[in-house]
Design goal:
It contains no helices and 10 strands. A hairpin with a 5-residue loop joins strand 5 and strand 6.
Length: about 110
């Protein structure tokens, strides 16, 4: 079955960086566009960015220029490099397909202190 396992979250000061990883199994990873999402309590899950099967990326305006999504098709891992973090970036971060078509993983908590 499909499994998405996010890791790499933590507590960081504003202006700092984190790199999240998402290990994917149960799908033909290399042909799937993947995405990162985030959610804060009481809010809907929002799309952070997408990486196509070919490596093309698009980002939400709120993270453009600060976040970078990449993928390793040999390891079935998608990454989210987050730089210049802000307190508003605090959320649980999830990966999924570009259409959020797979069962959600547990996510990884990112907390940015001011």
């Amino acid at each position: 079955q499909v499994q998405l396992v996010e890791s790499g979250g933590g507590l960081v000061q504003a202006g700092g960086s984190l790199r999240l990883s998402c290990a994917v199994s149960g799908i033909t990873f290399r042909v799937n566009a993947m995405a990162w999402y985030r959610q804060t309590p009481g809010k809907r899950r929002e799309l952070v960015g997408i990486i196509s099967s070919g490596g093309t990326t698009t980002y939400a305006n709120s993270v453009k220029g600060r976040y970078t999504i990449s993928r390793d098709n040999a390891k079935n891992i998608v990454y989210l490099q987050m730089n210049s973090l802000k307190p508003d970036d605090t959320a649980v971060y999830y990966c999924n397909g570009a259409f959020s078509q797979f069962p959600w993983g547990q996510g990884t908590q990112v907390t940015v202190s001011s």
